[in-house]
Amino acid sequence: IRKESAVNTTRLAHRALVNKFSHLQLAKDTLTAELQAEKTKGLKALQEFEAQQEKDAQALEVLQMQIEELNQTISNMASQHEREKQEWLSSHEDLSNMETAFAQMVNKQVKEIEEKEVTILNLHEEIKTLKLLAQQQAATASSETAYSFQRTLQDVRLENSKLLNRVKSLEKELRGRAAAP
Q1: What stretches in the chain show pLDDT beneath 70?
Q2: Distance of alpha carbon 55 from alpha carbon 63, whole angstroms
Q3: Quick check: 164 and 119 in contact, CB under 8 A?
Q4: 100 vs 92: CA distance, rounded Å
Q5: Is the four-CA dihedral 7, 11, 17, 21 of positive or negative sign?
Q6: Using CA atoms, how far apart are residues 10 and 64, in angstroms rounded to an integer?
Q7: pLDDT tens readout for residues 6-43
Q8: For residue 83, what is the DSSP state?
Q9: 26 vs 62: CA distance, rounded Å
Q10: In whole angstroms, what is the distance from residue 62 CA to residue 71 CA?
Q11: Prediction pTM value
Q12: What is the distance between the alpha carbons of residues 115 and 146, in angstroms, rounded to a whole number?
């Protein structure tokens, strides 16, 4: 009975081991299939990654060429800017001298205009005086004397008008020069 019991126990243990082995074999097959699927996915992902790396390498090469072109353009622009800067610096002194000469000329013209304004004011006063004299003489003098005096008055008015036009012209010219760069 003991022997039979031991055989039965051994058989049960053997059957349990066979069942366990079958489960393990099934698990191994499942894991092998999953592993194969993951390996296939991994290879596909690796191929995609390598293809993307190739594209990236080509894009990087194009970008490097563009960067080189851009650096060359920047270098050319910097050289051009430096040349223009040197030209400007060399001409700046001439411009400064021209500005000084222009300012002196403007000051001279302003002084001339001021002098002419004083002359015009004096002429206005003279004209007023002459008008009063003309009115007084016209009342008392003969028609010929009045005509002569009237003619002189017209000449003075004409001269006055010319001087006023000249002053306006000079003022306009002065403003134009002052506004010029």
Answers
A1: 137-146, 180-181
A2: 12
A3: no
A4: 12
A5: positive
A6: 76
A7: 888 899 999 999 999 999 999 999 999 999 999 999 99
A8: H
A9: 53
A10: 14
A11: 0.34
A12: 33
